[in-house]
Structure formats: structure tokens, C-alpha cells
């Protein structure tokens, strides 16, 4: 899309809206609307998971967020006198629905610290954002949707449509296996699918927590905390050996959690308290979200968790 975005970059000073209000507080906005539908949760999740190795990916409601970070230095040797460096980033927001909007904002460099010495910051941020858009479009399910759209509207062959897509995305990097795998076939009517019993792990499960667990896992039980708050438990539960993900809005994957206590120390409103889970292979103590309704969504616990076992999500 970088080729088409060339004539679709605007300077803005106030918010703009489309299916709701975008909270834009930057000086430059790139926006491109794809004439394809993206509403299937499986396809949306495939974009989030498919690009985690190249970008930082997240999802909230109907939006996907991809963040790219890079470092600028004023000289190659950090030991030289006068050396400066600054960490910069740009984010692409993908709004799903009956059409797909791909949006990026370029903030003033001052947002990231003392970076006025950085040369051509806006051009670099602009190029990085367009690289992200091209990469996601070329390698995701959106590529197939765009090819199908071009074939149907322009009456060209799939090969010609693919060539047009490649021409429109010259900055794309190649990301293998980013497209969704075929959905498993539904069982015949009347046939019940029996889930295999999960094996007991020998230690902590590797992080991070699956941020889309609510759309994939069922609530298997509720646990009443000492505060009387009822905590939802998602996914498999096998005694204390496999615990699943606890908490609806303050969510901790207890099979990843190593019980280091950083989240308990970081929380300013004391949401967590220790709970014993004897025999759990990851750790026998876990931070119980006993006062989950008191969470102020500051993300302190999520940010300090060394194994990325926590996901904080706002209600609604």
C-alpha cells in the first residue's frame, strides 16, 4: 500500500472519525481503506499471531495494533564523547469490519525524549509505517482477499492480481507462515468431539499469555476469593497441576506464572494477594486477583511480569 499511500498522507491537528472517533494527537496521519471484509475472529487472530516475530502485535475489540521500534544514534561508538541515542517507534492500527482501515500516526520526536538531533525522523517513521502496512498486506489473509477483489472487479486473472498487489507493496518484507491455517473440519452431525486429556507439564509453560484466550477458551469454573469476589477460570484445569488462566479483566496464566511476586509489589491498589497451589510445577504460590474489581488498568503488573503471564483488559 505504500505506493497508494503516497497521495493519501495528510497533516491533521484534530481528531478524525470513522466508525467511532480515532484519538489522533499527532501531526501526520496515513490512512488507507481496503475494500475487503475482515470480521472472522480466526482470520483476525491469524494476523495478530502471524506477525509477532517481526512486530509487536496486540488486539483490542475490533482493532489490531502493530508496533515497530528502532534505535537512532548520532555516532556509531557509544564510548565516544557526545554520543546520543533514542528509541523510537511507529504504530499501525488495523480497524476490522466490512471494510479494513490501515492507519498510522507520526508523533513529534519530542514524545520519545530529547531527539531533535535525529535527522529525517519523519521520513524514517513514514517509511517504517509504510513498510509495516506493505508487509502485513502482502503476507496475511488480506493478500488473498485483495487478490480476490481485484479478480472480481477488474476481471483479471489471479496471477495479474497478485502482480498488482506486489507492485502496490514494494516495501514488504517476506514473513513466512503468516496466513491462517485451514480451519479444522466440523464433526458430522450428531458426532461429539472428545478433547484429549492435557499432559502434566514438568515446569512452567513458556510465555507470553495468549491475549485472545477469551475467544478460544471456555470458563470451566469460578473461584470465590477471600474478598468474596468470584474469579473466572478459563481453559483446562487438572487439579493444581494444570490451572489455566484466572481472571476476566485481571488475567494471569497460572501455568506460565513463576510466582516471583513482582505484580503484587507493583500494584498500587493491592488487587493481588498470595494463594497456595501445592504441586503446581511452575510455582506453588500464585498472585490471586482477589480484588479484581478494584483494578485501575495502570498495567503496572503486566509490564513487570518477567514471564509475560499477565494481561489486563478493560471492561466492555
TrEMBL record:
A GO molecular function held by the record: 4 iron, 4 sulfur cluster binding
Pfam families given in the database record: Fer4_7
InterPro entries for this protein: 4Fe4S_Fe-S-bd, 4Fe4S_Fe_S_CS, Fe-S_Ferredoxin
Region called Disordered, residue ranges: 178-209
Alphabetic keyword roster: 4Fe-4S, Electron transport, Iron, Iron-sulfur, Metal-binding, Repeat, Transport
Location of the 4Fe-4S ferredoxin-type domain: 248-277, 285-315
Keyword Transport annotated: yes
Domain of life the protein comes from: Archaea
Protein name as it appears in the record: 4Fe-4S ferredoxin iron-sulfur binding domain protein
